[in-house]
Amino acid sequence: MATRRISSLVSKNFPASFCSLGRTFNWNRGIGTYSTAFATEEPITPQVQVKYTQLLINGKFVDAASGKTFQTLDPRTGDVIANVSEGDAEDINRAVSAARTAFDDGPWPKMPPYERSRILLRFADLIEKNIDELAALETWDNGKPHEQAAKAELPMLVRLFRYYAGWADKIHGLIVPADGPHQVEVLHEPIGVCGQIIPWNFPLLMFAWKVGPALACGNTIVLKTAEQTPLSALYASKLLHEAGLPPGVLNIISGYGPTAGAALASHMDVDKLAFTGSTETGKIVLELASKSNLKPVTLELGGKSPFIVCEDADIDKAVELAHFALFFNQGQCCCAGSRTFVHERVYDEFLEKSKARALRRVVGDPFKKGVEQGPQIDSEQFEKVMRYIKSGVESGATLESGGERFGSKGYYIQPTVFSNVQDGMLIAKDEIFGPVQSILKFKELDEVIKRANSTRYGLAAGVFTKNIDTANTLTRALRAGTVWVNCFDVFDAAIPFGGYKMSGHGREKGIYSLNNYLQVKAVVTPLKNPAWL
Ligand SMILES: NC(=O)c1ccc[n+]([C@@H]2O[C@H](COP(=O)([O-])OP(=O)(O)OC[C@H]3O[C@@H](n4cnc5c(N)ncnc54)[C@H](O)[C@@H]3O)[C@@H](O)[C@H]2O)c1
């Protein structure tokens, strides 16, 4: 069998790849056991003020119609960061009405695409100027390491807006040949008022994946942020208006899912819905859309992605990448490599090294330099993850490291590794969305393909091998929207992302996202005496 080394074992793309985080920042790892030093220190005061807490409707910050507010909390402590206007159905009506007027009568869809492109480019420049404040807000509201927000996520957001700014003046239709003397033009039109609902795990990146392509295509938007993380999208949207976005084109509603989110999904005057969140909520919004006006829906949902370590893998590199694939962002990634399949010949070595790596992971205040893992987003997620850890122990998996709360304040969890995990256990089937690695043993390639595909999800997969034939077999056999080979979490703006099966409908990013935000119209005109057809 012909084999050859795959030269690039870990992607060098940055900032498109989160893979480079560990190397770039030279994380200051502890040794042996978990360090509790950070947990006993006072939380670091964020270098940012919360300026925007109201709803953004028709270019203005306004209170909710009900006058209600809700608290957004600091995951490091559970303390209140700010009181934020709580939008509900009435505010969604106001925002949709502003977006409708901006679409039907406003300048945005009619603006020369180059002008739209320039506004998106100016916005990207403004984000770059305000990276420190935006990254601080993101860390404060979400708990993710500040270096990750500032050096990877914000640059990705900038890149994504520049990418879609580049598309704005390159979207065009087709002239297609037909039987008979007809001119057939296929026009690509903006789809109209877009409803967008995003989760809390990557508040600004999810904002970018939704807003960038929708605006490039000339649409108007009502976006509902996640109730856990309302702050950064309000700040970014203010900058978009500074960059020249006309009022009413982008409206931001903070609020809860069953009230504001459901009102948006079921609104009769919303032309398209884009949702990212859990599979359970995805089913609800799809039903709301179908029961209202049958608006088309794209869904980016949950996952239980396999990460397959083959017998020929460089074990040290595989351990590091599998660790990153699971623990990145506190394990709160839809595409987390949450089933680590390891070939039986390298299993023992892989396990020992994975355990040691988890013990070296630096957990603490996400504002502190060198910290790799902050707190989970809130008490609900914290409790859910702890329940899964308990279930892993009770179902007979071996707890190799972690398994406990980290520190005494906030929602920190020790990096946890289970070995001896069997396919039927809940920890191998459900999306845990936390820092819990499940290691499973396999023997044959056919066997691991079957087991990796034996899930209701199909978002992503990781493959670690030096053998090009093995890599080709796996990449084609795995039923997942993304397969990363010898890399993981490479998120270039041009790469499509989305799921098979219950991980979603449709794709975001790249050219594929444009199709989500365009209508296709055929215009047929008879041709009189054409010289040719
Ligand atoms: N596939 C992807 O690209 C991707 C990316 C990030 C997160 N996710 C998934 O998101 C989930 C975690 O996020 P979450 O806990 O915020 O998910 P969630 O489904 O609870 O919430 C997501 C959003 O939906 C809203 N919502 C909740 N109930 C609603 C309802 N009845 N009607 C309308 N909207 C409603 C929420 O307010 C929030 O804005 C995970 O399952 C993760 O895998 C997927």
Automatic annotation (TrEMBL):
Gene Ontology molecular function: aldehyde dehydrogenase (NAD+) activity
GO annotation (BP), single: carboxylic acid metabolic process
Domain Aldehyde dehydrogenase: 61-523
Active-site residues, Swiss-Prot/TrEMBL: 300
PROSITE patterns: ALDEHYDE_DEHYDR_CYS (PS00070), ALDEHYDE_DEHYDR_GLU (PS00687)
InterPro entries in UniProt: Ald_DH/histidinol_DH (IPR016161), Ald_DH_C (IPR016163), Ald_DH_CS_CYS (IPR016160), Ald_DH_CS_GLU (IPR029510), Ald_DH_N (IPR016162), Aldehyde_DH_dom (IPR015590)
Record-level GO cellular component terms: mitochondrion
Family: Belongs to the aldehyde dehydrogenase family.
Name of the protein in its database record: Aldehyde dehydrogenase domain-containing protein
Biological classification of the source: Eukaryota, Viridiplantae, Streptophyta, Embryophyta, Tracheophyta
